[in-house]
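User: quick one - fold this with NAI bound?
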Amino acid sequence: MTAEYKVIGDVAVITMSNPPVNGLGLATRVGITNGLTQANSDAAVKSIIITGAGNAFSGGADINEFGSPKAIQEPNLLSVIRACENSAKPVLAAVHSVAMGGGLELALGCHYRIAAPGCKVALPEVKLGLIPGAGGTQRLPRVLGVEPALNMIVSGEPINSEMLAMLPGQKLFDRMATSAESLAAEAMAYAKELAAQHADGSALPLVRNLPCKHPQGDAYFQFARNMVKGMAKNYPAPPKCVDAVEAATKKKFEDGMVFEREIFTNLMWTPECRALRHIFMADRAASKIPDVPSDTPKRTIASVAVIGAGTMGGGISMNFLNAGIPVKMLEMKQEALDRGVATIRKNYEAQVKKGKLKQDKYEQRMALLTTTLSYDDIGSADLVIEAVFEEMGVKEAVFKKLDEVMKPGAILASNTSTLDVNKIASFTKRPEDVVGMHFFSPANVMKLLEVIRGAKTSKEVLATVMALGKKIKKTAVVSGVCDGFIGNRMIEQYSRQAGFLIEEGCTPAQVDKAVEKFGFAMGPFRMGDLAGNDIGWAIRKRRNVERPGMKYSKTADLLCEMGRFGQKTGAGWYDYQAGKRDAIPSALVVEMIEKHRAAEGITPRKISDEEIVQRLVFSLVNEAAHILEEGIASKASDIDMVYLTGYGFPIFRGGPMLYADQVGLFNVAEAMKRFAKNPRDDAAFWQPAPLLARLVADGKTFN
Ligand code: NAI
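Assistant: Sure. Structure tokens for the protein plus NAI:
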């Protein structure tokens, strides 16, 4: 049982105890209801306290029960809350640290509430595509007032208890404890007071009986609805939060509860809710590596050296400075160092200007940054990350030098985006200490960190880098070694399809629009212009040598031959006005594409948005299926995290693999077979990957 029951004097104390946040799993729920029954049948008990052990009152639903029948098994949360309300003896919630979701709903079912300051209070269900489902939408407006309650429910964001306690007329907290430390003692005293107060058998207060009204209800809810609609766009839950809170003001409490439950159940089945819940779990799962247990020893990383102060080196350094870890940047020339430091300064200053960073924090961070031109100065760093030119020869020289100067036990990482990490490791006498840390540009902003596990990378190094990823607030996902790792290997197929599509009849703008309507942050051509089309050009030149005969549209090469590298040259797939980022369709590019079609004897055809999206997204899926089968990624959800956090895949679709699951793998494979018949496309590529074919045959899904 994960709730402890203790009687202290004449007060029964029920302490939820289900680390890390006292999730309301079945055993905890049973513990609470048993405690309530026991307390009510014990004549010596006069009042009851419900509280949480450790660092939370309760964080709400137990994520281990997500999607399992246990989640709704009796006593479900609604029954537990009813048991609190029905207790003949006063029940006091002693709230501290964290009271979220079901945890807050439980507290709202108690007769009284005392809170410690600094407690984070929230109903975050909307972030999982849901609304609160155990009375939160009906009770919170009754204690806080309609507007603050709706605000909390729609945003899902936590608010500190002492702030809530300041709201005029609030009834959420009957009393505030002086401090978190004194909460237990103050709750005990309060419980005794309450026992005395109700010794005469006077009725116990219930939140459900409080009135719930808004003086200008109709107007207010109309405003709220308009505002939420604009912001929520692809998400159905936020407008439903408005409906549910409005119901609290218009319906009887019990009817409001039925209405809330109906909305909750309907939302549960939406693809958006499934996507958000999938991401929640996938994010946690990414840090779990099948053969690297969580208790694997980790090395201390208290200082970092970065080789190369260019685009990536600077951004990478900022991550560590932000986390309070000193960084030393090394370059070949002083000018390069000066440029690198100036860019970092400029980035921080922009944050200060926007009010996102305090001046003193900025100075603290800059004070952690030092530079050098000499390898002699970096030998003592715990971790060194190489971000020099993407050429094996340059990497070889750097890693040989690092092997010479770095102290034993230092981790040697490369930020290479495509090169063979095993080969890089072989330039050292300590391949077990070598790992890929593949950041995404801009490295100080993008969440994704692909951690490349070399054939000889030690488990300790891997565990250390994964933990470090968390510390610098990245989503770290492990990838095996292959050309492009998980993300860029898949994007190669996506880019190839984008090329075929314009050859066959689309304009770049049509492709981008279709994909952006699907929900991508940016279509492939706008993305190419942003990243620099020359990067892909260089990679294709290498691949043409390594993999001759690979079929692809030459339009991207022709574009680069015109010197149109993208935003940085003021022209790419689109035209750009000086200093602006708006993509303007280019007559020159259209002409280039038409000439190319004529030379290849292609008669352009009209291509639907549906075909565009399917070919682009399913190309990701088929390549991903190969990646999974080869063990480059250990689970489908890792691939989803890579695409959600590094490539702008629409969040509400949950990543390419979940999207394919939701479309149905049979349908995905059938579409691939259709695409294979297109003579302009690559029939061999569109053979469903063996893993995909097996899943279709077995009626299974990726996730
Ligand atoms: P960059 O050209 O902006 O910067 C490279 C820097 O390394 C230059 O400042 C150069 O002076 C310095 N450098 C070159 N050889 C050196 C040496 N032997 N010792 C010390 N410094 C040296 O290049 P960028 O874009 O920062 O790329 C660096 C690495 O990061 C490459 O491996 C690239 O593939 C990878 N990468 C790049 C991404 C991007 O979007 N730019 C994304 C992810 C990875």
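One thing worth noting: Residues 609-629 form the longest helix (21 residues).
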